[in-house]
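Risk register update: the risk of archive-format incompatibility is retired. Evidence:
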Amino acid sequence: MKDLSRRLPTTAFLIGFAFAAIRYLPVPYFAALLYILVSLAAWELVRLARPSRYAWPLVFSNGLLVALAFSAPWFSLAHALAGCLIADGLFFLFTVNSKERLEPFARDWGILALAVVYLYFPLFFMLELKKLGPNYLFFLILVIAIGDSGAYFVGSAIGKHKIYPIASPKKSLEGLVAAVLTAGLSGWLAMLLFPIPVTTVLAAPSTVTAVWTGAVIGLFSQLSDPVESLFKRAAGQKDSGTMLPGHGGVLDRVDSYIFCAPLLYYLIYYFWN
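Archived output:
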């Protein structure tokens, strides 16, 4: 009960904040806000990974290049990756100046690359969904939230067959099936609450398309979450941080979107037309 009393105010704030940002913020301001949030998640991830030293300017500048690639038409993802490669390489070239720093060099560079590939790149597909229209993001959020709730309640009640004993010991096959089914139904509900407008580029999905899209998102949400949990288990931590009372860290709140934001974007373009 005490934990619930801490979670509810945070949940109410997050719902209101997310709704206002998605519905009302212009794309450039939304991109800036997304960069800040992903950078907070990257800060938590790097601390969990425990490099031999913390090169925060590189973490955040690498992320800024990725954000720019998704935001500016004159700057591509290839430019961003080349910039990250050159900046990181020069940093290590001129700072690895002892045998003590040489030994963890590859691991430290790998952690920098991890922040880009695992967080900044996939989560900035949320900006691509925002460009298509706010309701695409609302579809994603509602499907993930209902699927997670279905997995939690069914898994808590009848879950017996564990599927991720190391990453997420409490997650069960029964909960996974419930997540897929409830997320599929929530795809239909999302289309009712947040209708997708028909444009010259994209057509609104049929009810059947919305349902199977929701089911696929529900499945991959349950796969994305335990991947993030592996980082916490490896670091011996229950949560990625303490920034959100009752919810852990920012990374704990965005973990499902790491797989699902790019997945929904490509499902829309390849299957919704």
